[in-house]
């Protein structure tokens, strides 16, 4: 199969299973109009995250890497009325676009966006006692994946789900000699996960409109 067929099938899946959604469409449109990179999760992946949060009965969610807030909105919509989502973003322009998107989605009271480098914000989240989180979605710079995972564990409880995006990188993850910083960051994460007894973990390869990549799924024991 080619990237083209993956994309066509992904679109078929989205058309069949994911109803048109004016708010999500407007979120993507505003993000593109503002010049943000189109590196958000696909609709099928967004709904996958949403369903995962509902299956887990998540009331508190932490996201690392907001961009324009597309995955954030999918996740926040899984929360009950008293639920909360904290999302971390380093880029001021991305944060500004995301905040407008959250307001349009009617989720600005539910979503707490913190602007700054995530590794500097995470200690503040701990100090503010905002955890433990029921679900953590890690989707920022891949070089710091291990640092984000360690913080996710610190801010977790037994039963917390941790999801990490982009852990296959078109198959480049198997290349031990890669000099690509993102690939190396992902490989360090696998090493960390394989040695970590406090989580039960797998990874799933994904194909679709975003090409060939994958998610790590970890359950805190
Ligand atoms: N989760 C988003 C979605 O699917 O809609 C996509 C997130 S995008 C792949 C990664 C985001 O992480 C970018 O907006 C980038 O600015 C942000 N980022 C990169 N390095 C960061 C850091 N050190 N701290 C916080 N955010 C960071």
From TrEMBL:
Q: What are the UniProt keywords, alphabetically? A: Methyltransferase, S-adenosyl-L-methionine, Transferase
Pfam family name, one: Methyltransf_3
Q: What is this protein called?
A: O-methyltransferase
Organism, as annotated: Pendulispora rubella
Q: What is the lineage of its organism?
A: Bacteria, Pseudomonadati, Myxococcota, Myxococcia, Myxococcales
């Amino acid at each position: 199969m080619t990237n083209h067929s993956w994309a066509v099938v992904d679109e078929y899946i989205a058309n069949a299973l994911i109803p048109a959604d004016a708010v999500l469409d407007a979120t993507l449109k505003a993000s593109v109009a503002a010049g943000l990179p189109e590196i958000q999760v696909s609709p099928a992946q967004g709904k996958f995250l949403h369903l995962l949060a509902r299956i887990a009965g998540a009331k508190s969610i932490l996201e690392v890497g907001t961009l324009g807030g597309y995955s954030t909105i999918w996740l926040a919509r899984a929360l009950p009325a008293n639920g909360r989502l904290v999302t971390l973003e380093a880029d001021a322009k991305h944060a500004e676009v995301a905040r407008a998107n959250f307001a349009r989605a009617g989720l600005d009271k539910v979503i707490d966006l913190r602007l700054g480098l995530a590794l500097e914000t995470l200690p503040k989240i701990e100090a503010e006692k905002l955890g433990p989180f029921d679900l953590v979605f890690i989707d920022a710079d891949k070089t710091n994946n291990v640092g984000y995972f360690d913080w996710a564990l610190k801010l977790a409880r037994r039963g917390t789900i941790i999801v990490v995006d982009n852990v296959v990188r078109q198959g480049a993850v198997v290349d031990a000699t890669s000099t690509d910083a993102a690939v190396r960051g992902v490989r360090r994460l696998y090493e960390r996960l394989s040695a970590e007894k406090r989580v039960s973990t797998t990874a799933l390869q994904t194909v679709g409109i975003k090409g060939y990549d994958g998610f790590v799924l970890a359950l805190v024991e």
